[in-house]
Amino acid sequence: MKTSLFTILIGILSIGSVNASNDSNYLKNDNTSAKCFDENTRILNVGVGVGGIRHYRIAGGRYRETPAFSISYEQPWKQRLGPGYIGVGGYLGFQSANYRNTYRAPHDFNDYYYEHHWNNILVAGRAAYHWDVLNKERAEVYGGIIIGARIQLYRYDTNDPKPEQSNYKLKDGVAYPTYSLFAGARWYFAKKVGVFAEAGYGISYLTAGLTFKI
After folding, report:
1. Fewer CB atoms < 10 Å away: N or C end of the chain?
2. Residue 108 DSSP one-character state
3. Helix residue ranges, H only, 114-187
């Protein structure tokens, strides 16, 4: 066991040494005026967020929701805009939630349940400004806006043979326009792979994940 652990440790240290060497060469070879985002940059962000839409619920039930997943793409505008670059692209976000409650029905005194299901989808265009002062070789701070449509799909389920559904539709959906300002930061730990974090009301209030240059 000790031999195996020692072998694994040597392997990890070797990989770390190679990555450190590659990153060192990357820094040496890059022009000092290089930017995180410039006229040739195309990036794909894959993120997970918290702080999305809160749905109907009452005490005694069980409420669950998934993390807010998002994917976005950004590429530079054709011309430089002032002291920086503007990136444009698209945004897609998804989050699901479920509320379940049990009760005793007055018509037969048996226990039943009802459930509310929501699927939230955000489809939007996205634009971000990358100011030179905050746009360095491997890290940057940026801000922007998303404009699009939020789609909410709803479903109601119950095993009660005589449910009171006067206030619910078994299936329903709604779509409405939405927009939000956001601010973010990005840091590359490898030449084409980095991490990012953004605050702003997309599919969630806070999002973090990976950035890939493509």
Report:
1. N
2. T
3. none
